[in-house]
Amino acid sequence: MASERKAQSSNSVVKRLLSNNLTWSVVALIVLVIICTIFDHGFLRLEWNTNTGGLAGPLITVLQESARYLMIATGMTLVISTAGIDLSVGSVMAVAGAASMQLLVSGTNVWVAILLSLLIGLVVGCINGALISLLGLQPFITTLIMMLAGRGVAKVITSGQNTDASQIAGGAPLRWIANGFILGIPANFVIALIIVILVGLVARKTAMGMMIESVGINQEASRMTGIKPRNILFLVYAISGVLAAIAGLFATASVMRVDVVKTGQDMEMYAILAVVIGGTSLLGGKFSLSGSALGAVIIAMIRKTIITLGIDSAATPAFFAVVVILICVMQAPKIHNLSAELKRRRAVENSRKAVAA
Amino acid sequence: MRKNMLKTGLAAFVAASALVSLAACGSGSDSSSEAKSGSKDGSYKVGFVAVGPEGGFRTANEKDIQDAFKKAGIELIYSPTQNNDQQKQIQAFNKFVNDEVDAIVLSSTEDSGWDESLKLAKEAEIPVFTVDRNVDTKLSKDESPIVSHIGPSNEWAGEQAAKFVNDNFKDGANGFILEGPAGLSVVKDRQTGWDKAINSNIKVLESQSANWSTDEAKTVTAGLLDKYRGDNPQFVFAQNDEMGLGAAQAVDAAGMKGNVKIITIDGTKAALQALVDGDLSFVIEYNPIFGETTATAVKDYLDGKKIESNYEIESKTFTAESAKEALDAGTRAY
Asked: Which regions span the lipid bilayer (chain A) (predicted)?
């Protein structure tokens, strides 16, 4: 009897694990790593690089690359859980990156340049937030406009040039943020992780997360329970703006050069994909920051897989799409319930036969 | 609730109209030019279907063309697209045909897909001059309005890169190629030039696209260096400067600076500086300064003089020394 119960409980643990999105994300990540290891036997190798003062290896570059996705995916998670969307993150990355590079070139102190760039991200986020929360504009249209306008602003800031600050000696701290190491681990990944954890603590240890979700489920109802949906909406877009600016700094500081057309290009799509992989509903009302963080790492890992497998450049978007769809299919509850559904059907069939007999 | 809906509707309308006006800005066409300005008074009106802000090369190139036409006394209507959107270029082209300009200068983002627009121009008897990138058309010579192509040769640039690698690695070597976005004529032509000239003992381990982007090139190169660390890669041929600069940073981070020769095409100031600093090994110029040639060709053709069907603009190649000279001279516009 006891052993039966034990089996049952372990069975339910397995069941719970199987129906958890996070599990499938981890599985997807491991599968990708295994595929890469098959193609490149040294994929898991880690070595100490005395040149950079940190660990080196394929996995380390994945972590380095994933920092920017972590930032925009975290912002996007909060926005999406209010049933909104922020399409401007890629452009904000370009604006913040352009501002920081241009300021450095014009001789501004590096810390001032960083702060001003973050401030610009905050301002864009606040404009989004104000238009959406105060005027009640549609998030899709508002942030779409900001996406178009932002790219233009980035071009105006650098007067259409790809500003290069790699020669500026004072830019060393910024370069370190994107390329340096803390205890052998990429600094940008550590910074990104700390920020994600901070946002997670604020969201889950206070009532904030619940308020965000309730606004996503029903603004009117949450207003009646005493939550101020306007403030919440404003806040999530502002946060998304700042986080996108940080991502922009990571992306440009990595090469100390802003590319006004390419920096942050398609990033809004990657952010949305990371959020979806993480199990946050696009309809709002429910979010998982750890899921999105895992999704962000998976996005970086897929890009790494493309390079490791040497997939033809024309086929990379298709490859990317197929992997994402596969992950989504793996996570679909319908698929998880498939075996139960089949069992039920068989039982119905059997009972019908029995009746007929 | 109802008030709210009204508000949302209004908001959507405002937003939509903002979008429309944005789009209108993008095509930047000249609606005031209803009447055709003939060549009777000696002044020509020329439409310039351009690429718009894209980087140092493009800015220098389009500014030079605009300046040269101004100098030649020809009115040039500048119509840039955004983010390499060919659709906007086609719209601008067709609008120029409708406005019956005297000639069209076409700097296309993509080499195919122009047949219908070219037919329209031919019917309207408007001569078309392609600059920088050539246009790939199925039309025969009699059906096509294209009278001349002006620009540096991408194939030549690819050949120079291959020759540099041949000369430096007489006993053979392994390396990578960083390509631009798949499908562009520039990418194809630079690759063709390379393939034509490269020695058989030079092995390209892998060609990957880094989409002209510095940041992406760094990631891709780091990945390739990891993947082929046992094959002793000795060169990277980056099809433009931006990607070469990214590759240089990846090579530097891997502690292989000096062991891997990086070759790039374009010749922007940043690349020349990197060449002087030893981050790059060889830079092939893709000369953007051909406004004067273009303006003269257009003017001569409209004046009824005979012109060539192809003007190949001469470009230079740079090593560390010549790059230093060029930078010290301080005359480079981009």
From this structure: 21-44, 69-98, 110-137, 181-203, 232-251, 271-302, 314-332
Q: Which of residues 39-58 of B touch A (CB under 8 A)?
A: 53-56
At B299 the three-state DSSP class reads helix
Yes or no, beta carbons of A135 and B224 under 8 Å apart: no
Provide the chain B residues 111-140 that lie in CB contact (below 8 A) with chain A.
Answer: none
Average pLDDT over residues A168-186: 91
Count how many domains chain B has: 2
State which residue of chain A sits closest to B11, comparing Cα positions: A137
A8: pLDDT strictly greater than 90: no
What tens digit of pLDDT does each residue of A53-92 get? 888 889 999 999 999 999 999 999 999 999 999 999 999 9
* Residues 6+ away with beta carbon under 8 Å from B295: B65, B68, B69, B71, B72, B74
A263 CA: distance to closest CA in chain B (Å): 8
Q: Where are the alpha helices (DSSP H) in A19-109?
A: 21-39, 58-81, 89-105
- Domain tally, chain A: 1
Smallest Cβ distance to B182: which of A135, A144, A314? A314
The ipTM is 0.83
| B173 and B281 housed in the same domain | yes
CA contacts within 13 A on the Cβ side of B58: 22
Specify the pLDDT at position A156: 92
Alpha-carbon gap: B96 to the closest alpha carbon of chain A (Å): 25
Decide which of B126 and A329 is more confident: B126
Evaluate whether residue B332 is within a structural domain. Answer: no
Assess contact for B180 and B240: CB atoms under 8 A: yes
Q: Is A160 on the interface with B (CB under 8 A)?
A: yes
H/E segment holding residue A181 = strand A181-182
B47 and B168, same structural domain? no
Cβ–Cβ under 8 Å, residues A274 and A243: no
Q: Which helix (H) or strand (E) holds A347?
A: helix A338-356
Helices in chain B by DSSP H: which ranges? Answer: 2-27, 56-72, 86-98, 115-123, 154-168, 185-197, 214-227, 241-253, 269-276, 291-302, 320-329
pLDDT in tens, B1-53: 444 554 554 455 445 544 444 444 444 334 333 334 444 456 889 999 998 87
Task: Please give, rounded to a whole number of angstroms, the shortest distance from the CA of A25 to a CA of chain B.
Answer: 23
User: Does residue B25 sit at the A interface (CB-CB below 8 Å)?
Assistant: no
Contact list in B for residue A61 (CB cut-off 8 A) is: 219, 222-223, 226
Q: Report yes or no on B4 lying in a domain.
A: no
Select from B16, B183, B211 the Cβ nearest to the Cβ of A262.
B211
**Whether residue B132 is found in the same domain as residue B184:** no
* Structural domain that includes position B49: 35-151+288-314
Confidence at residue B31, expressed as pLDDT on a 0 to 100 scale: 38
Which of chain B's residues have a Cβ under 8 Å away from the Cβ of A312?
182
List the 99-138 stretch of A: residues with Cβ below 8 A of B.
135-138
Tokens of A349: 């069939």
Interchain pair B181, A65: CB under 8 A: no
Alpha-carbon distance of A292 to A25, in angstroms, equals 10
pTM, rounded to two decimals: 0.80
Residues B280 and B159 in one domain: yes
The Cα of A340 is separated from the nearest Cα of chain B by a number of Å equal to 43
Q: Is B312 on the interface with A (CB under 8 A)?
A: no
A197: in domain: yes
Measured between CB atoms, which of A40, A144, A257 is closest to B214? A257
pLDDT mean across residues, chain B? 84
